[in-house]
Amino acid sequence: MRVIAYNILDQEKEVLAKANAKVHDLTLISNELNLSTIHFASGKDAVLISERDILDRVMLFELYKMGVKSIITRSKATDHIDLEYAGELKMHVANVPFDSSMESIAKQTIQNLTQWMVGGCAGDACQCRMDCANRTKQS
User: Fold this and answer.
1) Which of 52, 83, 89, 101 reaches 20 to 30 Å from 60, CA-CA?
2) Please, where are the H alpha helices in 1-51?
3) Does the global pTM surpass 0.70?
């Protein structure tokens, strides 16, 4: 998958790159996701965000118009994402429900992307608010 990760801290870069192992076309930037930086998501399948990035209806619609179909927050919390509207747009959303260390967050994030890439579901990390046939394909 073509993926952009926003709001990446310096210490996250190596950990995410190592967890990815060149499976996904992953771009890492330190910029927060907002209307001034959203253009970096153009041509991407998915965006990775932190809980510092707010995805309200406007942001979600702009991402949707760009063709982004999947969102992963690198946090347990999802209150910074309008999950209902993401569901209306048929966007997949996942979190990292077992986050503890930076390494485990990175691994769960990449695992979520890989599950979607092969047509599966993010399992316990799934925060989708839509009917999805992929839920039956969990590993």
Assistant:
1) 101
2) 10-20
3) yes
Q: Three-state DSSP class for 4?
A: strand
Q: Which CATH class is domain 2-137?
A: alpha beta
Q: Three-state DSSP class for 107?
A: helix
- Per-domain residue ranges of the chain: 2-137
DSSP 55-72: B-HHHHHHHHHHT--EEE
Contact in structure between 49 and 6 (CB atoms under 8 Å) = yes
Question: Tens digits of per-residue pLDDT, 4-33?
Answer: 999 999 999 999 999 999 999 999 999 999
Q: Identify the CA nearest to 109 among candidates 45, 46, 67, 62.
A: 46
| Structure token digits, residue 41 | 């998501």
